[in-house]
Amino acid sequence: MTTTTETTIYTRYHVTFEQVNACHRIGSTTTRAAYYQVESSKNDGTEYTVEYNRIVKALTCTCKAGQNGIGCWHKRASLAHAEEYRTNRRLLQEKEEAQAVVEIAAEIASAEVAEDKANRVEADKAEVKARKANGYNAYNRKPFQFLR
Known about the structure:
single chain; 148 residues; alpha+beta; 4 strands; 15% strand
């Protein structure tokens, strides 16, 4: 099932779901750059490599069309997959940030409840101490008198 965002991406790059699904993102450990292995639609077991050439500043593909400098669907599918990948990572990050905000709010609320409870315990202790000292509670003191 494709979403509206995926449909928009597929339309923008003129590719189908199956073509994008044939892409496999592979991260390079040495250059920290990603490249794609794209399955051939005609030859089973054949995969073409699509990567960004920093010198030429363009995508290169190892298929026949790509080797001759002609645009191919492998490049378009790789671009669509890359955009879809970035979109999904961004959505996941936003979801994690929202979850973190909820957890922090819960911790703050819990701390406030604990502080309120501690304040009430202290007030109760003061009340008991005041009753023991003069028989009155902290809020009902003896009236003020000039003469004793």
